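Dissemination and training. As part of the outreach component of the grant, students in the summer workshop were shown how a complex can be specified as a set of sequence lines and then modelled as a single object. The example used during the hands-on session is reproduced here so that future cohorts can follow it. Participants entered these lines:
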Amino acid sequence: MPYGNAAGYDGYMGRWSLKLARSFVRFACPEPPEAALDVGCGTGSLLRAMAAEFPDCRLFGLDPSVDYLVFAGTKTGPAIFVAAEVEALPFAQGAFDHCLSLLVLQDIRDQAGALREICRVTCRGGIVAACQWDFAHGMPMISAVHQAVEAVAPELYRSSRSKAGRAFATLAELRLHWASGGLREIATAELPVTLRFADFTDFWLPVLSASTPTTALVASLPADARDAVSLHLRRVLLGSRPDGSFSLTAHAFAVRGRTG
Ligand SMILES: C[S@@+](CC[C@H](N)C(=O)[O-])C[C@H]1O[C@@H](n2cnc3c(N)ncnc32)[C@H](O)[C@@H]1O
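and obtained this result:
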C-alpha cells in the first residue's frame, strides 16, 4: 500500500486537495447531486467540499486504506465509508448520480476497467468526473522533491520510477479516455491552486511524512541524503532569500461526462 499515515498525508497533500476540491466540485457538479461516491476519498477533502456545497447530498467515500477512511470519518459530516478498490466497486448498478474522484487516476493500473466499473455504479445520465495534477508542468511541490531526490540519489530515483503508476499527460488524453469509456457531454478544465507556506520548515516537515509514494521515497533515503535533499530544495525554493513565506501554484486537469 503506497499510502499511509493519514495525518501526515493530510498535512502534506491534503492541504492542496482541500483547496482543489472546492473548485473541482463546482466544475464536476452541473446540478446538485443526490447520492455521490468519492472514489479514492483518502482523508476526505473532496467529501468535505461536497458536504459544504451540497448539504442534502448522501455521501459515500471509498478507499482501500482503512487508516485514511477512519481519519476522513473524523473530519467529514455524515457519510458512509467503504474499504474497497475502484476495480471492484461493492455497489449496485446505477447506485449514484455522481461519481467523482480527486487525485487518484495516477494510481490506477487498469484505467479502462476502472472507468467501466465507475460507469456501472453511476445511473443513466449521471455524472462521472475526475481530477488529477498536471504532473508534467504543474505540480511544483511534487516535481521539486523528485528533482531534488534525482540530483542527490540518481540510482535510487531511477529504480523508484519503474514502480510508479501513470497519470494522463494532457487534457486531450484525459478527454479521449472519457470518450472511449462511452461518456457524453464531456467537458474539461484546468484548475489552478496556490498554496502559501509560512517558511521552509512548513514545506519540508510534511515531506518527511512517508504518506505517499513521493514522501515514502524521501523517507527511504539515508539521513545524510535526506539532509542533502532538504538543502537542495531550500536553494530551489528560496534562492538567496532568507527563510520566510513563499507560495507555490499547481495546475490540475479535470474532466466530466455523462453516462449514456
Ligand atoms: C493521492 S491520494 C488522493 C486522496 C484524496 N482523494 C485527496 O484528494 O486527497 C490517492 C488515493 O487513492 C487511493 N487509491 C489508490 N489505489 C486505489 C484503487 N485502486 N482504488 C481506489 N482508491 C485507490 C489511495 O489509497 C489514496 O487514498
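DSSP finds ten helices and seven strands in the chain. Students were then asked to discuss how this feature might be tested experimentally.
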